[in-house]
Every structure is written in structure tokens, then in C-alpha cells.
Amino acid sequence: MDITVTSAPHAHILHLSGRWDFFSATNFEQYCEDLLREENMLNVVLDLGAVPYLSSFGLRAMLDLAKRLEPMSGNIHVADMQPAVAKVFIGSGFHRLFRHFPDVPSALAALSGKK
User: Fold this and answer.
1) H or E element at residue 62
2) Residue 115, domain member (yes or no)
3) Which end of the chain has fewer CB atoms within 10 angstroms, the N or the C?
4) What is the Cα–Cα distance from 74 to 41, expressed in whole angstroms?
5) Which pTM value belongs to this model?
């Protein structure tokens, strides 16, 4: 999985591409650890538009990041899921834990308070 980051006024946008499985979940966790330390990351939008597969390891990595952001009142919003990824996300109940949006601009608007 490849990860690129862009900054918006209220969030870091993590653009993910490729399978989010055991190996990429480990890389994601390290990448986020570095961002938390170096970039003072607080609010995150996960752009999953280019992620065709999401395993339980990816879900766990998402939950771990949320736990790291929680003491700082940070948030994770999930955006642009492909149908197979949405099925896993919703089927696992993660739609109750994380707000999800059809696209990145919608997620950013919600973070800025502009629903």
C-alpha cells in the first residue's frame, strides 16, 4: 500500500492506495507514528478511494490510530470507500465508530463544522 499525505486547514488527508492487509497495516501504523510525532497530526481523513481490499488488520490499524488521537480530541473521518471496502467497514460495525463520507471534500467540510 502506498500512502501520501496532504494537509488541509483542519486535517491531514492520508491518501491510501493498494491492499490494506497485515503487511500494509504495519507500514500504516509506523507512518502514522511518524506523523503524530513530526507533524502534530490531530484530525485525519482517510481517503480509501484507491483501496480495493481491507482486512481486519487494516481495521485494527484504523482503531489504533483513533485511540492515539482520542486524548488530543482528534478525529478520523473515512472517505471514498469502494464497495468491497465499504462492505467490510460496515459489516464489522466500524460505521458506528467512524464517520464516513462519499468523498474527501465532504469529510473535510464536516471537520471544519460546515456539514
Assistant:
1) helix 56-69
2) no
3) C
4) 8
5) 0.93
Task: Name residues whose C-beta falls within 8 Å of residue 80's C-beta, 6 or more positions apart in sequence.
Answer: 47, 48, 49, 101, 102, 103, 104
Q: What is the CATH number of the domain that holds 92?
A: 3.30.750.24
Quick one: cell of 58?
487494516
Question: What is the number of helices (H) and of strands (E) in the chain?
Answer: 4, 5
In tens, the pLDDT along 13-30 reads 999 999 999 999 999 999
For residue 37, the enclosing domain spans 2-108
In the chain, the N- to C-terminal Cα span, in Å, equals: 30
Domain count, the chain: 1
- Please report the pLDDT score of residue 35 as a whole number: 87
